[in-house]
């Protein structure tokens, strides 16, 4: 099993180690047909892409697409989930310059509103150490994912359920309805084998991505082939691989 289009990669525009050009070079070297540059959304004060850089990234990618005819290069952003109502940090620049959007939950973002600090961000941290909070947080997070898919045109949910507990059954049902891909991300162990088994009951599709932060990790899918096999997921439901 091999990735044909690595749809989730990071560069020096967030906290990746290599430039867009270096990642694209590596992609050509390992025979990718396509690569998506998806640095972190801007509400992350440390890692987020600066607003002014979207135009620059677009120009770099357009130039590389002109230069090479053996690889297609796309611009996306791994937007942050930042509020209980499914808010993510996609604004005018992202809409203007990106080809499509990814969304995932990360630590260290600036919440969507003052209220979200207390109802969303803190409870998700606290649920790590206070088991009695987990059930309530899981209900809130599940509704958050579903609202996000209703409100935004997202192509992929990255590492679903990582760092925030969700009801994968309800999320997979909504993802199938909205045509959103669920990511199998070996770097974060989500989806897990058990989660894939639950999600595949619905007719949505999946993507396996490297989430590379270093060029040597590009196209690497770790244990994903074994996981997919263990879950019994038919390979034609994974949109970006070849056997
Ligand atoms: Zn991520
Ligand atoms: Zn990522």
UniProtKB/TrEMBL annotation:
CC terms in the record's Gene Ontology section: cytosol
Domain Polymerase/histidinol phosphatase N-terminal, residue spans: 5-83
Domain of life: Bacteria
Annotated GO MF terms: phosphoric ester hydrolase activity; zinc ion binding
PANTHER family, A to Z: PHOSPHATASE YCDX-RELATED
Protein name, entry field: Histidinol phosphatase
Native source organism of the sequence: Acetobacterium bakii
